[in-house]
Amino acid sequence: MRLRATIPGLLLIAIPSVAWAWPQRRDYFLDPPRPGTFVHADAFTVGVQGSIEKRVALEDESLGMFHVRASALASLGYADVAAHTDLRFAGLLTIGASAGYRRVWQNFSWDPGKTENTREVRNDKLDDDANPRGPKVASWPWYEARARLVIPLESLWFVGNAALRWESPGSDGLQDPSGMPQNAFDWFHTNVHGPGRMTRLDATLFFRHQSFGAVGPTIRYMDLPRHDGREREVVYGLTFGTRPGFSRKDDLFLVQTLFDFRDREKSFGWHVSVLHEIPAFIMVIYRRSFEL
């Protein structure tokens, strides 16, 4: 959704690719991108996103590339605007930072240790006029520093991401709509946590082929503030990407699933409709890019 975990890394890696010939490879999104100015239009599971990006090669494209991007997102539960900058070295290592502002209009937050913020409870309250605790609408700034490593191994490609993220708190705790509430549902990561520092690590090992795209297992680790302390969360899943060919070039279809197999707190994952029965994050994205 800023489109979350491994997925945002993949979207940055590859649209559009360095060079293309008709027909464009189905797995092109894993290749280094080409310089230029591009507009990206995304439709995903519960919303839409638009962004504009400038890419500048560092003297020689083989040495690296500098990316600057601005994005705006609107979804079922929140809206987000952000600015991003990334520096890629030799197509393998990328470091970057983002700053943004989020407005949540479907806020689900409870006093830590009292009502559990479970999928079932959120589903029951989804259509209520008032949240049981905390403001119905909340807004706050967020900041992120990140690094990404890509290791090509013939038909196997490893993509790893590390991010340090800060979600700003309000000055008046749970009831303050000017900061992230305590024990709140995060529409971005589909988990429950409070404001402050978060660490996210994720990795995918792709098997890629030009005829179908790329697919591989994904793991995500997070260290986050929760229940007046800190907790660790590990989820597993699968990521698949391909060029569907709805346009002549530079379109992308991505699916990522993540599951909390332990599901001890019944809080991870989507709570909308029948999805509240399973501890799952399911993200489906279609992107179309246009070169200016």
List the helices and strands and how they pair.
Blueprint: H1 6-14, E1 36-44, E2 47-57, E3 64-75, E4 78-89, E5 93-104, H2 119-125, E6 138-153, E7 156-167, E8 184-186, E9 191-193, E10 196-209, E11 213-226, E12 229-242, E13 251-259, E14 280-291
Antiparallel strand pairs: 1-2, 1-14, 2-3, 3-4, 4-5, 5-6, 6-7, 7-10, 8-9, 10-11, 11-12, 12-13, 13-14
Which strand order spans the largest sheet, edge to edge or round the barrel?
1-2-3-4-5-6-7-10-11-12-13-14
List low-confidence stretches.
14-21
**Level-2 CATH architecture:** Beta Barrel
Largest sheet: 12 strands, antiparallel, barrel
Question: What report would you give on this structure?
Answer:
Helices cover 5% and strands 52% of the residues. Strands 1-2-3-4-5-6-7-10-11-12-13-14 form a twelve-stranded antiparallel beta barrel. It has a single domain, classed as Lipocalin (Beta Barrel). The protein has two helices and 14 strands; from the N terminus they run αβββββαβββββββββ. With 292 residues, it is mostly beta strands. Residues 14-21 have low confidence and may be disordered. The chain has helices at 6-14, 119-125; strands at 36-44, 47-57, 64-75, 78-89, 93-104, 138-153, 156-167, 184-186, 191-193, 196-209, 213-226, 229-242, 251-259, 280-291. The two termini are 24 Å apart. Strand 1 and strand 2 form a beta hairpin.
